[in-house]
Write a structure and sequence with these properties.
The chain is mainly alpha-helical. 73% of the residues lie in helices and 0% in strands. The longest helix has 29 residues.
Length: 182
């Protein structure tokens, strides 16, 4: 980071490579559109580059960058006046050398994942963002606080409320499915 701040382009390119995927996923949460998310992430990286001199030495880079990317994505989404469903993709979390699940387990996991993603997508934007930052992007509470521009305690309460709403959404859907099969 210090090399990038002092003007070494190759150092900044390395920061871009390390954070590109999470930046695009962050932008996608705000835009719901893959192409717009890539554009917003790219614009965010450019804005971050020009703002490097204002970056506080010793602070973590990723939350600072994600805040810039999230703001850029929101601005692009707002200017385009789009309202789309946000599709999140879960990282399966399997290593390359893990054994493949049985076809039955893979099918059940896919159904569970689809139901969870659908429920998350029906949550209000703030709840969806809190859950996505923590569980899909795997940001720490500190990183979330920096990216969202709020206190760590606020992150905890937002996340707690969002998870409760998600539980309620899933429970309501379970009740509806049970009534439909009787």
């Amino acid at each position: 980071m210090e090399r990038a701040r002092s003007g070494h382009i190759d150092a900044y390119e390395e920061l871009v490579r390390r954070n590109q995927d999470v930046a695009v996923r962050t932008a996608y949460l705000a835009t719901g559109d893959a192409e717009t998310a890539h554009d917003a992430a790219q614009s965010g990286f450019v804005k971050a580059f020009y703002a490097l001199r204002r970056f506080r030495a010793g602070a973590p880079f990723r939350p600072w960058l994600l805040k810039i990317v999230a703001n850029e994505a929101r601005n692009q989404a707002r200017s385009a006046r789009r309202r789309t469903t946000h599709e999140l993709q879960l990282d399966e979390g399997r290593r390359w050398d893990d054994a493949a699940p049985s076809p039955e387990m893979a099918a059940l996991a896919a159904l569970d994942r689809e139901a969870l993603l659908a429920a998350v997508n029906r949550l209000p934007g703030r709840d969806r963002q809190a859950i996505a930052f923590r569980y899909f992007l795997q940001l720490s509470e500190e990183e979330m606080a920096a990216a969202l521009g709020c206190a760590r305690g606020t992150v905890k309460s937002r996340l707690s409320r969002a998870l409760e709403r998600l539980r309620q959404t899933l429970a309501n859907e379970g009740e509806h499915e049970g009534k439909g099969h009787r």
